[in-house]
Here is the input.
Amino acid sequence: MAKLALLLVMGISAVAVSGLAQEGEAPGAVFRVEVDMVLLNVAVTDNKGNYVTDLRPWDFQVTEDGIAQRLATFGEGGEAPRRLGEFVAGQSRPRLVQPYAARVSRGRALLDGSARNPIQVETPEGVAAMAAGASVYILFDTSNYMYRGFVFAQDAITEFIRSLENPDRVALYSYSRDFARVVPVTTDRVQVLRGVRQTIAGDDAALYNALLMTLRDAAQISGRRMVVVFSNGPDNASMVAPEDVRELAQAEGIPIYMISTREARHDPVSTAVFERMSISTGGKAYFAKNWQDQQKAFASIRDDLSHLYALSYYPQPNPNRGWRGITVKLVGDHVKNYRVRTRTGYRPRLPRVAGQ
Amino acid sequence: MKRSALFAGLLLLSFPCNSLLNPVAWGQAAAPGTQQSPSTPAPSSSMNRSRVRIPGPLRAFLRMAAISQKSTPEEVLPFLARNVVVEGYQYWQDKARKPTEYLKLLKDYLLQARELQTLAGSEGVLRVANCAEVERLLPVIGYRFRTPCGPGTTLETADPEKAFLAVDSGFPLVELEEALRQGTPFSYSVVSTEVPVLFDSNDWAGNEKSVLDTLIDDPALARLYWALARLDERTRLTLRQSPGIQKLLPLAAVLDFYGSHVYIRSGRVVVPGGAAAEPAWKALVGVGPDVPGEFVLRLLEKDQGWVAAYFDTLARVPRSQQTYFTNPERLSRFYEALRGKNLSPSPARPVFRPVAGLLLLLTRLQLESNGQPHIPGNLEVWKEVFRRKSDSKVVRDWAKRATGWSRPEQFVEAMFSLSRVPSKDSPFSVYLLLTEIDRRRSPQQRLSPATVRLLAERFSRYQNQYLLFTEWRELDNASITQFVTTATALDRVPDKMVRANALGTFQANLGLWQILARQEQIPAGNLNSSFQRVMRPFADIKTSAQLFDAARASLGEVLRAAAGKPDLSQEEMIALLGGPEQSTPAGQQMRQEMANRIRAVLDAQRLVSLNTLFSLADGLSGMTQGKAASDSLMRLAGELREFELPRPIFTERERSEWASGLHKNPHADLQVRTDLRKVINESGKAPRELADARGLLTPFFRDVLVGFNYAYYEPPGAQMLHNNTLFVRSHDFSGQMTPTGEESWQTPRMFGRGWSASGGAHLAGSLADLPYVLAQLEQDFIVPENTQSLIWADLVPGLLTAAVLPRWWRVTPAELRAVALYQRFGEELLLAAGNDPRLRQRVLEILFDRMLPQRLEHFEQALEAGRPQEVLPEFLPTESAYLAAEFRRLYPGEAGAGGPAEPELARLVREHPAETSWERIAQDFGVPHPTLIQTYTRELLVLKPLPTFLGYSSRLLAESWESNNLYWARLAEEKGHPPAMLHRLVPALTHRMVEKIFATHLEDWPAVLRAMREAGEEFRAGRILSAPNAERASGQ
Here is the structure.
């Protein structure tokens, strides 16, 4: 019987992977399997919000619909995920890392001039590790709702992009009623900055349409991906529902971060969606006082980028073709008080259509 | 035997178009290329003589003025004037009261641009060599240093208003920032650009103000500028002399809407009907067209613009058609009917031209062989229709007069009068639709008086369904009557859930019948009988179980007609919809691709397969005969439970509060609640309970049938169909979205857009016009290529519909070649006309019916100057193909251009007469006109691009845009693709073209042409949709 050689594609979650016949097999004896690898970005924090680092694969227990899963790969922060066999057995020694906001508040005043560029206050090793290997998709709301804050939001996005030290790639998209790929995903940071200043104000706001398109683009590339939305809400023109968008993000394992201002709080619908969508995809929502005051949000996202664990597994047999709930727990007394944040589940794709 | 002579406006080009040969049609004196009378100023250097400076970079100005970056310098001021009128002011009772945000920003930008120019000095270049030098610049653009100037510096907003203007107009802030960080010099050109002014600057502005500022500040003057800019140059110059700008100024609105066909040649206004109609126009207007200035002035001012509207609409229809209406007696009588007693509202008051009824009437009226208008049924039945449709005073007045009608023209008068009434179910609307049903029918097939009466009676409810009968002339009076009877019976189904499902399944099955009929899988001789058989099972429905059986039997009839057997598996059904069996590799590949597309949508919507539903139904029937519930039956019953609603983000209470009821979807909820296994277990073998259990399958069955329809018409780039799993299930057939419940049979409307808690947008209504409505809903997922481009809402769905609806299975290589040759031959004729005055005369004569006067003059000038190649890129594929077809018809056997396309086309037509005839090409490469002529039949009409109208916006423009499919076919042929590949190419190229549209306003059809050419060039260059040679060759 032909053996299957599993082609492991790192960083692609829930994507069909074809196994090819090994060399030496009889011609024509090609077997194909479809294996959906699930990738989880997992943040572990203590009860004060400090990141917990240096955990090992065996500190995590993943279940899907209550069925225990075997991890395939594991990685932390910017490091490339590795097979489990590459880890040396032994108890982990968790370390606590304060989030950026706490470090700043301890050292310098947040709003004085020198603290405005957060890069200057990071430790060198922290900066180097940040965001390595990630692709960041920035989605900018250019609708009428942003009209008054448009240039301030541009400033904020510019700052955010400059503060991202090492992500592999950044893309800048914008939306009003229409969606625009202002700068497709690139390593050229200046091009992205130029793109920010080239965005122009539009009309209606179709956030969820745009998020859907952004996620579909992000799903095309490998590696860690995240979507960062700069929007004040609300949405008044989308066709798709936020539920559809969230399911796609969960299926693809792409966390959504929403950066907003307190103005968005005036619209309870947006507030609800921003908070619930981001948390259930493994991201976060931020509501700063205004666009000039987003450093905490940026730092938090960068912290996430540099401290998330990347876990992957191939789901065990499960007859459920609908929604599958994911639970990630920490195992052992030394980690029992820590908290875990990751996506809450996903809906598996149906088998692909032949010939497509 | 009576024979209808359909007017050429809606004629396929094969119809005789005698007036093209008729010297009185638009007059020898007025023919293009003839000598000009001394009283008509020659086009001259006066155009472009005067210019105005646009401060700052032109690109920045265009951005702020919302003008397409692809506009020519000549278009800048006209487009600005147009935007000032439409976007620049809030109006109250026709008076511009308050500038809009658009105008404020534009004016503020001009101030900033002038300030920057001052900073830049005479050289016009802003230069910043170091940190010190930027200090003067930053306040002007609204920025400041966030961190001290140097390697790590960044800029931030200091003055949000100025900063907004700077970035919105494209100031290179990042380049400035980078220069400051790197210590390198920065420079930015703010040199102003000169653009042409109509006539002379002094005509528009005094010494104190530039033309630019004058137009921005004076919307009335701007409107006149915009109106004059769309006249041909000779006419414009004549009007400048007389009556002059000051006299025209109060009439700017009328000239704007109805001036584009004002055409002065040889000292006379060219009037609809030509020289023969001049006395009638003189009588109507009060001055003869030989006094052009005065004639135009009176034309515009009389009856608040109604005469001008009449003139313009008549001028839009082909000359053959004008002849009937411009008969001296009729011209006046029909106008009086149109005018009526009440001039209000003026046709030039609203933002859009008022209802398009007059245009539709003039283009749709059919004449019998005796010269009298065709009246569907007979005159007597229309008297009845008028009496019953007495919901408005105008109709009631005409109903009184109708009792004395003895001639069809009296009826036509009433139609003129009602053409002003914006009503969807007046006798006028009934007439337009019914006359269309009769259009392509033989006298024996036409609507009987009884059928006319029935259709008119039920018009308000079923009118959108009547498009079935405009498309399929094979459906006889009995079929039409059966349809109305069945629909009425379904409306009486007592249970509202059963009724909604009945409407959905009934329409979905008829939709499948239509699809298979269009694909010629149902033989023509079987259309009528199969249609009746498909409807018959729905005659008496009361319960859900009965509905399931009826829908299944009905589907069986669809399949029997198309596939020869009533039972097909899901896969066989998908393959059938994919297209007829193909013999070529390319055909087989495309058929598979079409089937895959359908399957992908069904999968994405997670619809239960027909196999499952039918097996369950059969199993349940078996149980009534004593069989036990098998394991497989129970497993299949379990499959129904697999569908889950998306996991909610909102609580039920939040949904109630935030979605205004739009989130309610009892149809989908019922499916989620359905537990057939439990029902089977608990039902025992009681026949009634098992029948009820079968009825539980009906909602699932409805969805899969509706899903087939949705999937078949999937627009390119669709996202809702693939990402919103409730989309098909949410189609609301209940009629409960409006108080009257009328929408259950009408064109579906979109609900839920922009309501985040509603679960996504969905359609409510019937399946009528589904291709357009799906395209309308999916168009927002098309990503424009150009920043700030305008992809307007009513045009794009029309373009997409024309790309999605057609299938190309019957197109042969010879036909595809002929499509390309018609276009090439037309181009050869145009090029040869540059050197041949006789040919030029003929070419321009033919093109007169296709081109607005301004454009015709543009072509005429290029040909006269011997530079025809200059206008070749502007030559529409419909125009070139039309020119070739008409030339061949009018001058058979005569050598035309001497190019290679002409003899090859002649040879091809000889060898393959049926495949290469113009009728066949129009059927296969024409577009549907569901609004303009209320049919999905594909045709090529003789039309100029239509403007916007109230209630239609640019949908009529989309339907008058017939170039795409002809052009894509030509490109495919050039690239060696087999005809079947059009299934992939046409939607994809249309999608690409839409991405490229970069327009300034709703009537900017040259932008559509530009986008089409750009997409075509990408394809030609192999940058998009390139296919391996092997694939192309294998299909031959």
Q: What stands out?
A: The longest helix of chain B spans residues 496-518. Chain B has a mean pLDDT of 90. Chain B has 53 helices and 16 strands.
